[in-house]
Amino acid sequence: MNHTLCRRGLWAVALALVASAVGCGGGSSGPPVLNWYVPPDNGAYQKLAERCSQASDGAYRVKVSVLPTDASGQREQLVRRLAAKDSSIDIMALDPVFVPEFAEAGFLRPFEAAEAAVLTEGMLGSAVESSGWRGRLVAAPFRANTQLLWYRKSVAAAAGLDLDRPVTWDQLIDVAEKTRKTISVPAKRYEGITVWVNGLVAGAGGAIVRDVEKGVDLKPTLQQDGSGKRAAEIMRRLGRSSAAPPNLATSIEDDTRVTFQSGAGGFMVNWTYAHGAAAEAVADGQLSREILDDYGWARYPRTDAGKVSKPPFGGIALGVSEYGKHSAAAVQAVQCAGTLENQITYMLESKETTAKAAAYDDPRVRAALPMAELIKESLEQAGPRPRTPYYNDVSASVQRMYHPPADVDPNTAPRDTDDLITGVLHDKVLL
Fold this sequence. Notes:
This protein is an alpha/beta fold. It is built from 19 helices and 12 strands. It folds into 2 domains: 27-138 and 313-380, Periplasmic binding protein-like II (D-Maltodextrin-Binding Protein, domain 2); 147-312 and 387-425, D-Maltodextrin-Binding Protein, domain 2 (3-Layer(aba) Sandwich), CATH 3.40.190.10.
């Protein structure tokens, strides 16, 4: 064998491979690829990414990467990579409760005033508020979600309950006991129970913590005005009532839907996706049309009769990474995602609700979501969870002391939770 020729042949192959890589988009050729990290969904994120890629006229291409299912898992994966200054993350879909933490850590590129004006135009106030930190917009409002009171029309009619008027948690429990039906609530020891506690506390006029701008010296206030006690009273009463589903203490959102749609179902507190999910189940032949037709909806229950309820606020805000290599293109992509038409299309495809106020007036949305006006009203008057960089510690403390619902002691849970939050934040107690 001629080894010289062999070596020349190998060099030729190597050069050809390099040339092929460059020609196929390697190196710096081609538009930048923006990595957008999103929670799992039904493919609506991918369709939105494709629309914005096409609308950019070659300025960028958006690639969707899917995060874990639960919000805590999403946070953990992103924090671990951002702490290492991973430049492969360009855009990230964030649960609003984690926006202050990411901003305080320097993970988010704040938007300039002109960018912020575009990104907040026509957005619901609660979504804009949940996307800012220290006076700057650090994430873009995208999805906005809230919880409604869902009820079986047949059960409410049999009980003579008028749900066109405000209803309290105590009234619901009374009716459910009377009709031998259940009230389903996400109450597993996870974020769902923090959402429930916060909704009850905010509805009583209180807050889990105050003075969040003081960092670890924030003030836990569950025992301050009786709101933490009132929340515990309602949770304990439901937990020990015949209205409690057997799986109350372990239920997540989808579990509540299963119970609500069963013969025992009467009432349910759940996010706005519930109706769309039921409609899809009917279309797939997995749920009777009669059950979907029996779905009714009303505003989140009141904690106290004389105080307006504060429906929980949730959703998604879009953050641009401080460490990404294509931040200008990432901002353009985020702006594309927030246009009215894209918000409406995404809303219809995903069955998730939007932060864009005008979307709720669109005839297509009204047809798909007959409760659109109630959702919009609830979002406008929603009660957000604590906005602090230490939210994870605050939430974990609430979960420990207010679970399981049947065993919550109204006389001790507020004080013990306040003490635990303080101890954890000052490194005196481990969760």
